[in-house]
User: What shape does this take?
Amino acid sequence: MPVINVDDLTDKDKAVMEVNQLKTEVKLERWLTSKCCEELKEYIQAGEEEDILVKGIPEDKNPFKEKGGCVIC
Amino acid sequence: MRDPPPPPPPLETGGASSPRDVMTAASAVSSALIHQVAEKVEGLGQFVMKTRRTLKGHGNKVLCMDWCKDKRRIVSSSQDGKVIVWDAFTTNKEHAVTMPCTWVMACAYAPSGCAVACGGLDNKCSVYPLSLDKNENLAAKKKSVAMHTNYLSACSFTNSDMQILTSSGDGTCALWDVESGQLLQSFHGHAADVLCLDLAPSETGNTFVSGGCDKKANVWDMRSGQCIQSFETHESDINSVRYYPSGDAFASGSDDATCRLYDLRADREVAIYSKESIIFGVSSVDFSLSGRLLFGGYNDYTINVWDVLKGTRVSILFGHENRVSTLRVSPDGTAFSTGSWDHTLRVCDDCYFLSNLTTLQPRVTFLVTSCNVCCFSLFFFFLSDLGLRMRTQRMKW
Assistant: This one.
């Protein structure tokens, strides 16, 4: 497998690469965007309760709570 | 069946329609999609994010960081060639390595927590096994794994300690075997430097996404080396890409000051996170655990937090004194860490009390009112006392 450097490629090489890529992509099966967005929304709403950055965490359970007092190791 | 593509914006012959206006008009048609679907979803209100820890110790710009799977340790790398492993709970430095090169632009923690990988201007990715013995010289055990023909921009271990994925300024990404240093697969398709990469969450299989200076984000199949999908809607270099937690979408942050969300099954951009007032580029993005929040580190020293569904900004965090170069949410989603050119790293989270102020409103109102009443009464008491004293003094005269 050859390792290349893009700086060595000519504009023509880059254009050929892009056209080949587009030819591959044209055959892709695509879903309806509305359906995909619905699924994203459902995924978020399912996980939102456990998401600490969204709901917040009481100070006593927070592993990053402010340090204070003395700790005996 | 694909949705019909949006009509191209009309070409204006006269007046000043800037590229940004045209792009905004075009993207407004296509990218309002997730906001439309989420119209009935309850908004989040305003968040208050608070810095919990500040990690000081780097002598120069912090360029990259990564969390360990134990949700507590962080590895960070900086411009002066130092790679430091921190305990984020205590802010102690556990290990420090000096790389032979400056600008260590990439670093990653191994899934086992027993090694770190880093690289930069040396065009290599090196793996350092971490030992429990603090006195042991880590540099002696270094293993050079990847060799590129230009700088290393990002690296990531795959699901095990045995393989590393790298991206480079030479426009390629590559998969390497750590033990032998052998190149297992190489990925060509970008027309310019590749700046970032992210592996799909393990449940969804062997793909990864990369973003580059050619404004493209490419999704690759790791086994065949083939580029499966390509997205080109950004107007400038893509500095950061991050998979959505479910693996069906990914977000990108770019020098064009926007973050965008792309859905892989729909094969298009579904949301754009931007504001007129934000003109500085995004250096790094990450999602919260559920995917509801998108965190972006910006070159104007701030961190903006976006509501993924509504497209609105829910919080802005100040604190860094120079551009934010890297941002990662911890593996369990309790906090997020940022690294900056101001030589520090910060660990921040959602300030429960201030963010939930609306629910705690009655208690707070009572507290505030009673404080006010006390203060005013004290003030009047003092005034009257003063007045009385002055009257007595005048009578004396």
Observations:
- Residues 11-61 of chain A form a domain with the G Protein Gi Gamma 2 fold (CATH 4.10.260.10).
